[in-house]
Write a structure and sequence with these properties.
heterodimer, A: alpha/beta, Rossmann fold, four-stranded antiparallel sheet, globular, B: alpha+beta, two-stranded antiparallel sheet, 12 strands, 15% strand, elongated
Chain lengths: 226, 400
């Protein structure tokens, strides 16, 4: 078992006059294993991204625990949690996430700036090749199309060979053909041993999944796989 | 890839942002350094002039215009001359309280070859002098020979070289220390040399000087008062007892200038503080505005594993680097303006202007440097805090 999330709840307080509490997640349990693709489907605002952010340590749940192997991430300091995220997690956020002042290659290399990676440059070049970005390696993000930016995000998430990859709506702004390419690449990452958790509303993503969940009213319902 | 490179790219590849911040830092450091140097130079100038004159009392011909002429000679280097009877020197020697006295004789050259303008020639008595020789910075320790001169620091003539005055070749045997006053452009000579120069002037038809020989007249007398005597009282006794002269206390002659200086010095200080505060406020606004512009970038950095501390350090380091560069450029620009143009500032302001020494200047540079590299990072503390605490999940969810 790689990641175990138990009894996760998350509630917000609405801004404005009412300040009414909103329960986004309620008593959610999830276990993630290496080498598998997990797809979480659901409507917008159903809490999929919130769960992903909690699993990746970017957000703290209201109750419950998240463990990476035997490590309770809530017992870590910000520095330790950041290290863990850098070394063990690859995160593909929604939308454009490239740093504008860096070239494509430098963006892919970004996580190596924190922990250092002796093979960083050769790995970056290999990933650029793998994702068809070699001709664009010296281009700036504003010269790239939506599909190219998405591939850049995936390449960056893979640079430190993470144990788990979280992808938040990775095909949001892509057509079906490009979306299939992205899912294929995430599937390949899982075949290389990483666990891949994809949050999406694209139903055909199920074709690439080992396990499919549907997020409904803050709870996960398993639809496919063990 | 390293954090240092990331820092470098952020600075170099955002030229507009970097330039705007650099500009503020340059203005701030130039204002602090330039202002401090100008203020100190003016103060040095007045102190130097007071020390340089070395006399407690200066005696001049009675007319008010002569006092103005002397101030112009001393402060602005405007050549001038006026005369009184030479016997006054002997009379003054008999005044109770006079310790030392030395007469000077003013002459103005026709355009000398050293300069494009007229030169003030000051004839002084080698034996009684106490206001010229103490300030010799080079050579000449004995007495001045015929056609030998001592030159002010502002003249290009070097020791051992000659300067042609009224067609007479005069050899420079000494050079005086810089005072930052009109005395820096004067030439000092003995009475014999002055006589030769007057003869040369006569032969060239400059008749205004022909009947004013240093054998008959003098321009001013510098007086040192004995210890224990009241300087004002001695000056009053001279004014009451000797006709046709005015005894002016050196300090009071410089009071007007010192007052003017204190107003300018105060204005410069206010300007420095105003620029400093304004720059700090602008920096604060710029950095706060940058929080919104950069929060997505920082959310991405956070997502890939930057800790809050690293993000805060990143913002502070960027600011610090820009401030360091800005401070150095600002100090260099201010130096390039203030030091080479000190003579022009002196002429334009009509105030003595003596640049501080290297060590003092380095001290002011350190002050300007410190002001900028403290203000910049302080102004960015709030934005560094906000950027390091961005709600990563929320910002990344917001999309583009």
């Amino acid at each position: 078992m790689l990641i175990t999330a138990q009894n996760i709840t998350k509630s917000y307080q609405r801004k404005g006059k009412t300040k009414a509490p909103v329960q986004v997640l309620s008593n959610t349990d999830l276990s993630i294993e290496s080498g598998k693709v997990y797809v979480i489907l659901g409507r917008s605002g159903s809490g999929k991204s919130t769960l992903l952010n909690i699993l990746s340590g970017l957000l703290t749940s209201s109750t419950g625990t998240v463990r990476y192997d035997d490590t309770d991430i809530y017992s870590l300091t910000d520095g330790e949690l950041s290290q863990l995220r850098c070394k063990r997690v690859g995160y593909i956020p929604q939308g454009q996430s490239a740093v504008g002042t860096l070239t494509v290659r430098e963006n892919v290399l970004l996580p190596t700036a924190i922990v250092g990676n002796a093979n960083g440059f050769s790995r970056a070049d290999h990933l650029l090749e793998q994702f068809g970005l070699t001709p664009l390696r010296d281009a700036r993000p504003d010269e790239l199309s939506g599909g190219e930016l998405r591939r850049l995000s995936i390449a960056r998430a893979l640079i430190n060979s993470p144990d788990v990859i979280f992808a938040d709506e990775p095909t949001n702004d892509l057509d079906e053909e490009n979306s299939r390419i992205v899912f294929e690449q995430l599937r390949n990452a899982a075949q290389s041993g990483a666990a891949v958790v994809i949050v999406t509303h694209e139903l055909f993503a199920q074709e690439f999944a080992d396990v499919v969940y549907r997020m409904q009213q803050g709870s996960l319902i398993r639809e496919k796989g063990q | 890839m390293s954090i240092r490179k990331l820092l470098f790219f952020n600075i170099v590849r955002r030229p507009l942002r970097t330039f705007a911040l650099l500009f503020i830092c340059i203005v701030m450091s130039a204002a602090v350094f330039g202002g401090a140097v100008i203020s100190a130079s003016l103060q040095n100038g007045i102190n130097s002039l007071e020390q340089r004159l070395g006399a407690d009392i200066i005696v001049l011909p009675e007319s008010a215009s002569e006092k103005v002429k002397l101030e112009n000679i001393l402060l602005q280097g405007t050549p001038g001359y006026f005369y009184m009877d030479k016997n006054i020197e002997n009379t003054l020697a008999g005044v109770d309280g006079v310790d030392k006295l030395s007469a000077q004789y003013f002459l103005v050259s026709a355009n000398a070859e050293c300069c494009t303008v007229q030169v003030q020639i000051i004839g002084f008595d080698d034996e009684t002098d106490f206001s010229v020789k103490p300030w010799l910075s080079e050579a000449y320790s004995g007495s001045l020979g015929r056609n030998e001169i001592v030159v002010g620091s502002g003249l290009s003539t070097r020791v051992g070289h000659t300067l042609k005055l009224y067609g007479v070749e005069c050899k420079a045997v000494g050079k005086l220390e810089s005072t930052g006053t009109g005395l820096d452009t004067a030439v000092y000579a003995s009475a014999d040399t002055v006589r030769d120069l007057i003869k040369a002037a006569e032969s060239k038809g400059i008749s205004v000087l022909s009947k004013q020989s240093p054998d008959d007249v003098i321009s001013s007398v510098y007086i040192k008062v004995k210890d224990g005597y009241d300087i004002d009282e001695v000056a009053a006794n001279i004014n009451l007892g000797i006709d046709g002269v005015q005894a002016v206390r050196t300090k009071s002659m410089l009071t007007g200038t010192a007052d003017k200086l204190s107003v300018i010095s105060g204005s410069v200080t206010v300007l420095i503080i105003a620029v400093w505060v304004l720059s700090a406020v602008i920096m604060l606004i710029v950095f706060t505005a940058l929080v919104n512009e950069r929060k997505r970038e920082f959310a991405v950095l956070r997502a890939v594993g930057f800790s809050r501390r690293k993000l805060g350090t990143q913002v502070m380091s960027e600011t610090l680097v820009i401030c360091l560069i800005g401070a150095v450029i600002g100090i260099a620009i201010a130096s390039a303006v203030v030091f080479p143009f000190s003579r022009l500032i002196e002429t334009q302001s009509g105030l003595p202007f003596l640049s501080p020494g290297i060590l003092t200047s380095l001290g002011y540079a350190a002050l300007a440097f410190g002001a900028v590299i403290l203000t910049g990072p302080l102004a960015s503390v709030y934005s560094a805090y906000r950027l390091s605490r961005v709600d990563t999940a929320k910002i990344l969810r917001e999309g583009d």
